[in-house]
Amino acid sequence: MLYKRNEYFRYTFDEPCEATFRLIKDASESSPEEISKKGKCTIIDISPHGIKMYSELFISIEKLNHVELQVTLDETPISLIGEFVWSHRKISGYEYGIRFMDDEKRESLIINELKNRRKKEIERKK
């Protein structure tokens, strides 16, 4: 595994987090054009710069490389726009690596939501 020195952290969920996604035409637009209906996925891990998701659906990432994810890590729903970087076939579906577009506000929201989620997980274990 390649070590990314500039990566803050990568949070791996004990139980994958439910989310939805839709394929979009161009992630650089202010209101991206939808080219698919919403699909269900699970988030395996997340960092402020990317995400690993699992879906039963096959996505041809060479042709359809932009995606919008809707996820609630703790309490606030977050819309994340990114591009597919890699995909791996699994027994009953596919894992995808997605790199987010640079956005400091979104990065800090992800970090804060994960901190709050982790605090609640620790409290439940006590």
How would you describe what is shown here?
Residues 29-107 form the PilZ domain. This is PilZ domain-containing protein. Pfam families: PilZ. GO terms for molecular function: cyclic-di-GMP binding. It comes from Psychrobacillus glaciei. This protein is α+β, with helices and mostly antiparallel strands and 126 residues long. It has a single domain, classed as Beta Barrel (Thrombin, subunit H). It contains 1 helix and 6 strands, in the order ββββββα. The chain has a 6-stranded antiparallel β-barrel. The chain is globular and about 45 Å long. The model has no long low-confidence stretch (mean pLDDT 85).
Number of helices: 1
Order of helices and strands: EEEEEEH
Number of domains: 1
Radius of gyration of CA atoms, rounded to a whole number: 15 Å
> How far apart are the first and last residues' alpha carbons, in Å?
34 Å
What percentage of the residues does DSSP assign to strands (E)?
Answer: 35-45%
Task: Give the integer mean of the pLDDT values.
Answer: 85
What is the CATH first-level class name? Mainly Beta
Q: Which architecture name does CATH use? A: Beta Barrel
Q: What sort of overall outline do the alpha carbons produce when their principal axes are compared?
A: globular
Estimated helix fraction: 10-25%
* Structure class: alpha+beta
CATH topology: Thrombin, subunit H
Number of beta strands: 6
Strand order of the largest sheet: 1-2-3-6-5-4
Largest sheet: 6 strands, antiparallel, barrel
CATH homologous group name: predicted glycosyltransferase like domains
Taking pLDDT < 50 over at least 5 consecutive residues as the criterion, the unreliable ranges are: none
